[in-house]
TrEMBL record:
Organism whose genome encodes this protein: Bhargavaea ullalensis
Alphabetized SMART domains for the sequence: FCD, HTH_GNTR
Keyword Transcription regulation appears in the UniProt entry: yes
Xref: SUPFAM superfamilies: GntR ligand-binding domain-like, Winged helix' DNA-binding domain
Lineage, broadest ranks: Bacteria, Bacillati, Bacillota, Bacilli, Bacillales
Domain HTH gntR-type residue range list: 8-75
Superkingdom of source: Bacteria
Entry-linked Pfam families: FCD, GntR
Signal peptide start-end: none
InterPro entries linked to this entry: GntR_C, TF_FadR/GntR_C, Tscrpt_reg_HTH_GntR, WH-like_DNA-bd_sf, WH_DNA-bd_sf
A single MF term (Gene Ontology): DNA binding
Name of this protein: DNA-binding GntR family transcriptional regulator
Swiss-Prot/TrEMBL keywords: DNA-binding, Transcription, Transcription regulation
């Protein structure tokens, strides 16, 4: 990892560097993050490092336990499938509820997001792609009049689910496929084809689940 520069907030820089290291696999699942050695490596004191670790913990990327070093988080196969089931139930139902609220401005917002997704892929900036992927799904949910459902979908796309995408490190391999699936969802919405939009969302989330399962199939047993 790079040494911290003094021109920006130290905690913010530490957060960004650690998050990138997790995404790139430089810091791996269950790897300890001892404050003394990490602060020396980054060239900062423990206080901004702790702030960065706290932020990463809130995002589900690290696990903190009292009296022990923080560790890079991981997910079980069963827990990941549970989260995907919840996402599917919520998002497939939600997309059928928003068709009457889809207008040209909303379509333009989705197109802008997809343009940025494509740019992130071309630049191999997969941290940015993950953020834009989450934003795409949250934007779709924003048209739902059910505030509780909207809130649940947002939480699923900004918390544990996003953390798993980062930790599983499947995004570099699957980003182009996910982008293409997003495009098909947009096209169905633009054409006001409710049944097709539902089908495309179902296909997309099924494929996300398949990519999760491919990740677990590559984990050595024991």
């Amino acid at each position: 990892m790079k040494v911290i520069k003094q021109s920006e907030t130290l905690a913010e820089q530490a957060y960004t560097l650690l998050k990138k290291a997790i995404i790139n696999g430089e810091l791996q699942e269950k790897q300890p993050l001892p404050e003394e050695s990490m602060s020396k490596e980054l060239g900062i004191s423990r206080t901004p490092l702790r702030d960065a670790l706290n932020r990463l913990a809130l995002e589900g990327l690290v696990i903190q336990k009292k009296g022990r070093p923080a560790i890079v988080a991981g997910f079980t196969r069963e827990k990941s499938l549970e989260y995907m089931e919840i996402r599917s139930v919520l998002e497939i139902h939600s997309i059928t509820q928003i068709m009457d609220r889809v207008d040209s401005l909303f379509i333009d917002q989705l197109k802008e997001n997809l343009l940025e997704q494509r740019g992130a892929i071309d630049e191999n900036d997969f941290q940015k792609f993950i953020e834009l992927d989450s934003e795409f799904h949250i934007l779709l949910a924003s048209k739902n009049s059910n505030e509780e459902m909207k809130d649940l979908i947002e939480r699923m796309n900004t918390g544990v689910n996003r953390a798993f995408l980062i930790l599983s490190n499947t995004v570099p391999q699957s980003a182009r496929s996910a982008y293409a699936e997003h495009v098909e969802i947009l096209q169905a919405l633009e054409q006001k084809e409710a049944a097709q939009a539902k089908e495309k969302m179902m296909v997309h989330l099924n494929n996300v689940e398949k990519r999760f399962l491919m990740y677990y199939s590559n984990i050595p047993v024991g």
